[in-house]
Write a structure and sequence with these properties.
Blueprint (H helix, E strand, L loop, with lengths): L6 E2 L1 E8 L4 E12 L2 E8 L7 E2 L6 E5 L5 E6 L7 E4 L2 E6 L7 E8 L4 E10 L6
Parallel strand pairs: 1-4, 2-11
Antiparallel strand pairs: 3-4, 3-5, 3-9, 6-7, 6-10, 8-9, 10-11
């Protein structure tokens, strides 16, 4: 069976610690391929493959395995949790996660799924 899609999202894992604030900047490149658009995402610096991809708007959802929505970050919503730059986006969330575990996430712009995978939230060691 042939699978046809309009994009090939980056498959990655993200990590946080329960209760800690989230401050994460990710760099996004893309390239056109025969089946649509291929995305490359990495932290700290731009990926070597593709060219910088700048989204107009982004939505990031994090869900438990049973489908319960834990986080729904949307760019352009005041106060914005996602700031879009030229070939990058920056996620901030002062509250972080209230529970630990392995969760599913995806990053979508208005046309494509840019990134998806597992968001691992580690248990906190020190509870204040």
């Amino acid at each position: 069976m042939t699978v046809i899609s309009n994009s090939a999202p980056e498959r990655s894992s993200l990590h946080a610690v329960k209760g800690d604030a989230i401050d994460l900047e990710l760099f996004v490149n893309s390239e056109l391929i025969s089946t649509g658009r291929k995305f490359y995402v990495q932290a700290l610096s731009a990926p070597d493959d593709g060219i910088p991809y700048t989204a107009i708007s982004l939505q990031i959802q994090v869900r438990r395995k049973d489908g319960l929505l834990l986080k729904d970050w949307i760019s352009g919503v005041s106060p914005s949790d996602i700031v879009i730059g030229a070939g990058s986006f920056h996620i901030t969330d002062a509250d972080g996660f209230g529970e630990a575990g392995f969760f599913d996430f995806d990053v979508q712009d208005s046309e494509f799924t840019i990134m998806s995978g597992t968001f691992y939230v580690e248990k906190e060691t020190t509870v204040i």
